[in-house]
Amino acid sequence: MHEGAVCREIMDIVSEAAIENEINKIYEIVISVGPYSCLHEGQLNFYFDVMKKDTIMEEAVIRLESDDTLTGTSQMYVKTFRGE
Amino acid sequence: MKTITVNKNVLSKNDEIAERNQAALTARGIRMFNLLGSPGSGKTTLLENALAHPNVDKSKIAVIEGDLFTDFDAKRMDEIGIRTIQLNTEGACHLEADMVECGIEELNLNGVETLIVDNIGNLVCTASFSLGEHHRIAVTSVTEGNDKPLKYPKLFQTADYVVINKIDLLPFTNFDVDRFKADVLSLNPNAKIFVCSAFKGDGMDEIVEFLTK
Questions:
Q1: DSSP label of B94
Q2: pTM of the shown model
Q3: B146 CB near a chain A CB, below 8 Å?
Q4: How far apart are CA B10 and CA A76, in angstroms?
Q5: Which domains, ranges and CATH numbers included, belong to chain A?
Q6: How far apart are CA B76 and CA B41, in angstroms?
């Protein structure tokens, strides 16, 4: 239910890192998630498909990767992204 | 093509504001509680009963009310003489740290020692967003069923205090108090569990004690 807010944060973090690294087009974003991240991949992609229009992420996909070492309140990390 | 390593917490912006909230409140000698639970679990009724307790000095308490719509809950706090401000998210299912930061700026907190955020009724999303609280309270009621901790673990894993409310209705339900407590402790061995009826007033002394100590 809070995937809209999560999507906004992911896009802000990636946009900032893309500028720092002179990346103009992004193809893939990898998010590490803990066992209780409560992040729903389908809902996240629904928001991402709407929000990425007309941005450098327009052609990108988000991939979730499980990481059982993540515990507590912070169980979602922007791990890497791929672009040029 | 390049792969960039970021390793940044998705909610870091929220968490930074939350840390700022906590530091600002700590510096003023104020403890903030984040009150979480389902809609109808009795969060606001718990506050009404606890804050009207004779041991409570109302001048030392302030409440930030969070709801999608209406100022019903702020009016309820007003009626018992508690300083309050109503936040309306108009759709968002949880409060975020920046909303609470605005609430803190607008409230007159002079003389306040305890600030309570009565969060949006929600067992899922609210648990993921730190507001800068010093302590988290999860409120659940016996009519919700005793299986909720294992079904919605994050709230119970992150709560310092867990309150079982509406205990006066226990005879009319199949709620298993021992099972509920065991499940909470299996998720969070440090949780302090309280049993009460905010409506009837049973078990409120202990809750008042931790809110005001």
A1: S
A2: 0.90
A3: no
A4: 6
A5: 3-83 (3.30.2320.50)
A6: 16
Count CB-CB contacts under 10 A for residue B37.
27
Cβ–Cβ of B4/A83 closer than 8 Å? yes
> Which residue shows structure tokens 């909230």?
B21
Q: Do B8 and A77 touch (CB under 8 A)?
A: yes
**CA–CA separation, B140 and B195 (whole Å):** 10
Using a CB-CB cut-off of 8 Å, the residues of chain A touching B130 are 73
Shortest CA gap A42–chain B (Å): 16
Q: What is the pLDDT along chain B (213 residues), one digit of tens a residue?
A: 999 999 999 999 999 999 999 999 999 999 999 999 999 999 999 999 999 999 999 999 999 999 999 999 999 999 999 999 999 999 888 999 999 999 999 999 999 999 999 999 999 889 989 999 999 999 999 999 999 999 999 999 999 999 999 999 999 999 999 999 999 999 999 999 999 999 999 999 999 999 998
